[in-house]
Amino acid sequence: MTTETSHQPPTQESLGVLLGLVRAELVRALEAELAALGLDLRFTQFLILKRLGAMGPTTASELARAVELDGGAMTRQLDQLEAKGYLRRTPHAQDRRALRIELTPAGEALRQQLAGCNERVLAAAQRSLDATERARLFDYLQRVLHALRDKH
User: Global pTM?
Assistant: First the structure.
């Protein structure tokens, strides 16, 4: 008599492992695209530029929450991106203690260039799916994310 503790076939990866592997491959592919363009950027820096472009000028703490980094890691990334001329810190109009983070013209130009990299990587990742399957995958992943974030 055997007791089955899992409803998955033994050779099937768990959802968590599979999602982690997909994320790792997306990061690897995007960093390869960046390197092929001669850009000295890591995935985290790409993500910061992308989110900053979408959010507009913001504080470091808001940006850190948006990309899920702690304060120390965000400061290091901002220092590097500022040294490369892609963003600047300016005094916050309402809070003397805070700084506002914004893209420079060079940072905005780079962000637009990076959008093409992102689209190519995502298109390659989904090339074996038809339009209906892509829509379903997006829907399924959104529903999983909402379920994980729903505390009730």
Answer: 0.79
- 69 CB contacts (<8 Å, ≥6 apart)? 44, 77
Residue ranges of E strands in 23-111: 58-59, 87-91, 99-103
Summarize pLDDT for 49-86 with one digit per residue, the tens.
Answer: 999 999 999 998 999 999 999 988 999 999 999 999 99
Contact 111, 53 (CB under 8 A): yes
Both tokens of 108, joined, read 């905005």
Lowest-pLDDT range of 34-43, 44-53, 62-71, 94-103? 94-103
Specify whether the CB–CB gap between 51 and 66 falls below 8 A.
yes
- Cα–Cα distance measured from residue 112 to residue 75, given in angstroms and rounded to the nearest whole number: 23
